[in-house]
Amino acid sequence: MSESVSAVEVRQKLGEILNRVALLREDIIIERAGKKIARLSPIEDNAVRPRGRLDFRKAAGLGREVWEDLDVDIYLQQERGEWA
């Protein structure tokens, strides 16, 4: 069974969605304005499928720009408030 996600969600969470497709072998249907427009499916070739442990060393520093304009104290207060 395939899960449907909006094009906006794909744009916001592309890395997460690609991991679900590649690592968890999920099919993802992409919708725009409520209409199905595309499908992300894992490649069946075993040579493409990751083997062993994932290497995150090349990911160092990715996403740094997200935190540049963020007031960490305010962010932490908001996060703690949601868990209270």
Structural notes for this entry:
A three-stranded mixed β-sheet has the order 1-2-3. It starts with a strand and ends with a helix. The mean pLDDT is 81. The chain is 40% helix and 18% strand. The chain has a domain at 1-44: YefM-like fold. The longest helix has 12 residues, at 72-83. It is of the alpha+beta class.
Throw out a few tags for this protein.
18% strand, alpha+beta
Entry summary:
The protein is an alpha+beta fold. The chain contains four helices and three strands. The protein has a domain at 1-44: YefM-like fold (3-Layer(aba) Sandwich), CATH 3.40.1620.10.
The Rg value, from CA coordinates, equals: 17 Å
Mean of the pLDDT scores?
81
Q: Decide which structural class fits the backbone.
A: alpha+beta
Helix-strand pattern: EHHEEHH
From the 3D structure, determine the CATH topology of the domain at 1-44.
Answer: YefM-like fold
The proportion of strand residues reads 15-25%
Low-confidence stretches: none
Helix content: 40-55%
Total strands: 3
Topology, pairings included?
Blueprint: E1 3-6, H1 7-12, H2 14-24, E2 28-32, E3 35-40, H3 64-68, H4 72-83
Parallel strand pairs: 1-2
Antiparallel strand pairs: 2-3
